[in-house]
Amino acid sequence: MEQQKQLKKSIRFFNDREVRAVWDDENNCWWFSATDIVRAINNEPDYTKAGNYWRWLKRKLKQGGIQLVSATHGFKFEAPDGKLRVADVLNSEAVALLAKHYPNNRANEFLDWFTYSDNTLDGQSRKKAYQLYESGLLRTLEPGSLKCLQQIHAYIFGGLYDFAGQIRTKNISKGGFTFANCLHSPKRCK
What HEC string does 33-45 produce? Predict the structure, then answer.
């Protein structure tokens, strides 16, 4: 599948390993990087080793009659060198299937983390807020500064809203609740 405009991207963290995903409007689902899942489960810092392990595991599972990846769903992810590369991706069902057939029990904790998901925007942002707190990253930010607030906002809402981490120039509300008036922001609203 030739990758068109990616409307949404998401990065989730499991044991400080990123698990990247892209939203597929056509199929109405998230696709997760298979190599990132292997890196997270194995707690592997090296992308190359994780990629090699994924290719070996994919062949092994295919020999056992389990095919996880659809050849029609190759999305591009940014590699450690900054280039965009097509990667094997798994939808939620395939991620669960992979974890259940993983060669060791390390996948159990990952599957518990992965399946605990409220796929609403509020649920996703709440999960990211917990992850931010547990990551210890907050201790590295300058408390009360505008930059700190932007970093927190970008972390919690990144991949969910295009404006994550940016200073608003318009007033917004959700469910009858009006957020802080942008007149009080460094940049004035229109």
Answer: EHHHHHHHHHCCC
- CB neighbours (10 Å) of residue 89? 26
19 by Cβ neighbours in 10 Å (0-12 / 13-18 / 19+) ranks as buried
Mapping DSSP to helix (H, G, I), strand (E, B) and coil, where does residue 108 land? helix
HEC profile of 127-170: HHHHHHHHHCHHHHCCCCCHHHHHHHHHHHHCCCCCCCCCCCCC
Please indicate, yes or no, whether residues 101 and 29 belong to a single structural domain of this protein: yes
pLDDT digit string, tens, across residues 56-90:
999 999 898 888 876 545 678 777 778 888 888 98
Residues 101 and 162 in one domain: no
φ, ψ dihedrals at 149, nearest 5°? -60, -40
Residues 128 and 108 in one domain: no
> What residue has token string 């090296």?
46
Q: How far apart are CA 15 and CA 47, in angstroms?
A: 15
- Give yes or no for a contact between 136 and 155, defined as CB atoms under 8 angstroms apart: no
